[in-house]
Design a protein that fits this description.
The complex is a heterodimer of chains A (about 425) and B (about 70). By secondary structure, chain A is α/β, with parallel strands linked by helices. Chain A has 15 helices and 16 strands. Chain B has about 70 residues and is mostly helical. The chains are: A alpha/beta (about 425), B mainly alpha (about 70).
């Protein structure tokens, strides 16, 4: 979850706690996902415990996170106590809040159900006059923003990247030129993104124009493109917003993310070769800090992925340090380096030079792994054991990257066991 | 159960203009061939899915797993 959304969730939780007092209540969270797990961490910090995570997916039943088990939603009546209205509460982080609320009410649950975060500015499950008026104003605002963009750049082709995700934007850019050729797009593209770091990724592929917008403003522009069916624009994402339903194919077939973008998003032939970033790569200014071929760069952090136990990272650092390697942790913002390592805060276009000097990269599977996929070094991606979205496929089934060793963590894995599965 | 409705059929037609204005229901899966955003038919065009598989994907009911 990005920082802004996390702070919004934390703020909403504090307001809710002040309003109704969560202490002593049986707290349920609906939907096992990374946002839910982050909410559990927040609740634990506040000294609160979660009774259960409710989830409809059979493949998630029995998963336990910090003492909280995933159970079927049907068990809410049994678990919510004799007076659910006063003794319990269900908190929802998922964007499917409306259908979850409906399901709980159909099950007979009468306790409070609260949305703790609003991921989805596109949705309001109502056809009331007020809602239509508000959404019409939002769309009009989107059109105004688009008009301003055109005034700034002229008659351009607008490419919308709705979601702040490094990996998605990297993969999108690797197919952009092929797509533009196939479509006969001759207007200069302008990429509209929700964060500065995405402009760095785009810059690795060429000297493209990029405009950065606040998420809600970007959402409004995207809605305007949908409403007006603006043929001089394209929404280049595999999952958002709601009009893009590519994910439904995953209910019946396993399609890796690379093919989701190549064939699903862009409609390119299956044998299309992706571009690689060559234009905007730079050498890190302090490469002399990194012993050549005898260094390891760890990347233990990822905003939308279940964390890997810190003991695994710590043991990995001890292992490599004991074998004469210098260890670094890739950090950004407030992230701290792993104990026994030095912090590396490297601009994305310089990461490849760092890894090729170091010789080894070990990271939790995140968007950063996509950004460094062309680095000529030993690259290992670690996959926590979780399902991709609400599908039956594991994360490794969808996110495996060519050129990496893709290692899925198993049960009570330790670094010793993981190390034996790596081909050195 | 999620409903599968063609964009041009009634009663969806009268709500159609709202479908592109905002997500007024999470109970709709529309099959479109718009140049502005990707759709499931791209998988048919590229050979990853057959039309029959797209229909199965659209009609898939996750609640039936319960």
């Amino acid at each position: 979850m990005d920082k802004k959304l996390f702070f919004e969730m934390e703020n909403n939780l504090n307001i809710l706690d002040e309003e109704i007092g969560l202490s002593g209540k049986r707290i349920f969270l609906f939907g096992h996902c990374s946002a839910t797990l982050e909410l559990i961490d927040l609740l634990i910090e506040k000294g609160l415990s979660v009774t259960a995570i409710l989830d409809n997916s059979d493949s998630k039943l029995g998963i336990v996170y910090k003492g909280t088990e995933v159970v079927k939603p049907e068990r809410i009546m049994e678990l919510s106590g004799a007076d659910p209205e006063n003794e319990s509460i269900v908190l929802i982080t998922s964007r499917f809040y409306a259908s979850m609320q409906k399901q709980l009410r159909c099950l007979g649950y009468i306790g409070p159900i609260r949305k703790i975060i609003d991921f989805n500015t596109y949705a309001d499950y109502s056809l009331s006059e007020d809602t239509i008026k508000r959404m019409t104003a939002r769309e009009k605002h989107g059109e105004e923003l688009t008009t301003e963009l055109i005034k700034m750049h002229g008659h351009v082709f607008k490419v919308f990247c709705p979601f702040d995700a490094l990996g998605d934007v990297y993969i999108m850019m690797s197919y952009w030129e092929s797509f533009a050729r196939m479509r006969g797009i001759t207007n200069t593209p302008v990429f509209c993104v929700p964060s500065r770091v995405l402009s760095e990724v785009i810059g690795m592929f060429g000297n493209y124009s990029v405009e950065i917008y606040e998420q809600k403003e970007l959402d409004a522009m995207i809605q305007a493109a949908i409403y007006t069916q603006d043929k001089d624009s394209f929404i280049a994402h595999q999952d958002r917003p709601y009009v893009i339903n590519l994910h439904r194919a995953l209910y019946i077939k396993k399609i890796p993310l690379e093919l989701i973008y190549r064939c699903g998003v862009f409609g390119l032939p299956i044998d299309t070769v992706p571009s690689t970033p060559e234009y905007g790569l730079r050498e890190y200014n302090h490469l002399n800090r990194i012993p050549e071929g005898k260094s390891v760069v760890f990347s233990p952090y990822a905003k939308s992925v279940t964390a890997i136990d810190e003991s695994i990272w710590n043991d990995a650092v001890v292992f490599f340090s004991g074998n004469g390697y210098k260890c670094f942790t890739n950090v950004a913002g407030y992230e701290m380096p792993l104990p026994g390592t030095e912090a590396l805060d490297v601009p994305l276009p310089e990461m490849i030079s760092v890894l090729e000097k170091a010789g080894t990269f070990i990271g939790i599977r995140s968007g950063l792994c996509d950004v460094v996929r062309t680095a000529k070094c030993n690259k290992i991606a670690l996959y926590p054991d979780y399902n991709y979205s609400d599908t039956k496929w594991k994360a490794i089934d969808i996110y495996s990257i060519e050129g990496f060793q893709n290692i899925e963590l198993e049960g009570e894995d330790t670094w010793d066991k993981i190390e034996k599965r790596i081909k050195w | 159960m999620k409903s599968f409705r063609y964009l041009d059929s009634e009663p969806f037609r009268s709500e159609n203009k709202f479908y592109h204005l905002y997500e007024y229901s999470d109970d709709i899966c529309a099959l479109e061939d718009s140049p502005v955003y990707p759709g499931l038919m791209n998988y048919v065009k590229t050979g990853l899915l057959t039309e029959d598989e797209v229909k199965k994907a659209v009609e898939y009911d996750k609640n039936s797993e319960m």
